[in-house]
Write a structure and sequence with these properties.
The chain has six helices and 14 strands. It is α+β, with helices and mostly antiparallel strands. Strand 11 and strand 12 form a beta hairpin.
Length: 254
């Protein structure tokens, strides 16, 4: 597939007719010397992965898998912002084509409360950077959506031109990465924290957090800390919970 607007924004670009996982492919290419801001894209991913090792699949030709190699030169402890930046960039790209998208911490983009895109950030084995993967449901018809909580650009009546969406995504991602890098990874000075907070529909919401050990905590998401972790004021008589990893569900009651 020809994606001229997207390709010109990448330091190196490759469209794959099929791939097991664009993240896995790009991690391998990074080890072979591919540069910062190289991009791989396919609409036929056969063994995609989400957070916590979950499988991510879609009918061929209906979803875009895009992986971006970044070597931002920021402190390691600030890498938690990278997946948030990717989520915000995708939400803004969807807004640019008319969709009221927002970010669900830490790695989902929602349209009308339903998931249209997931983000998976993976650190490179040598610690020199990360690969940011995004799986965007662009042309999945309603009858083929995998779960009731999913949606697609097509279902929402939005344009499905992959080049327009991906170019808008990369433009916004590069801009945020430039700001974060120039500020030495400082989310405040770069404006990154403010941008994430504006886009994040999780903040202010009542949530259920399922922690990696299986414990559930219910409370209100109140803030992001300096490393991009979610701060939750628990319903229990306990100090606020700072969540680095866990499944977050937005609760529909107050």
């Amino acid at each position: 597939m020809e994606l001229p607007r997207t390709a010109v924004l990448a330091s190196r670009f490759e469209w794959l007719e099929t791939a097991e996982s664009t993240n896995t492919e790009l991690v391998a290419r990074a080890a072979a010397g591919w540069p910062d801001r190289a991009v791989l894209v396919t609409d036929r991913q056969t063994a995609g992965r989400g957070r916590l090792g979950r499988a991510w699949t879609a009918p061929p030709g209906t979803s875009l898998a895009v992986s971006v190699l970044v070597r931002p030169g920021i402190p390691w402890e600030r890498y938690g912002w990278l997946s948030l930046l990717a989520g915000v960039a995708m939400a803004e790209a969807i807004r640019s084509i008319g969709g009221a998208a927002d970010l669900k911490w830490p790695n989902d983009v929602l349209l009308g409360g339903r998931k249209v895109c997931g983000i998976l950030a993976e650190a490179l084995p040598d610690g020199s950077g990360a690969v940011l993967g995004a799986g965007l449901n662009h042309r999945i018809p309603a009858e083929s959506l995998p779960v009731p909580t999913a949606t697609s650009l097509m279902v929402e009546g939005l344009p499905t031109d992959p080049d327009a969406v991906l170019a808008a995504y990369l433009e916004r991602l590069w801009s945020s990465l430039d700001a974060l890098t120039a500020a030495g990874g400082d989310p405040e000075a770069s404006g990154v924290r403010a941008a994430v907070e504006r886009a994040c529909g999780t903040l202010g919401s009542r949530v259920r957090v399922q922690l990696p050990g299986g414990e559930d905590v219910i409370g209100r998401a109140t803030a992001l800390d300096g490393d991009g972790r979610l701060v939750v004021a628990s319903d229990r008589d306990a100090p606020p919970l700072v969540v680095a990893a866990g499944d977050v569900t937005h609760l529909r009651y107050e």
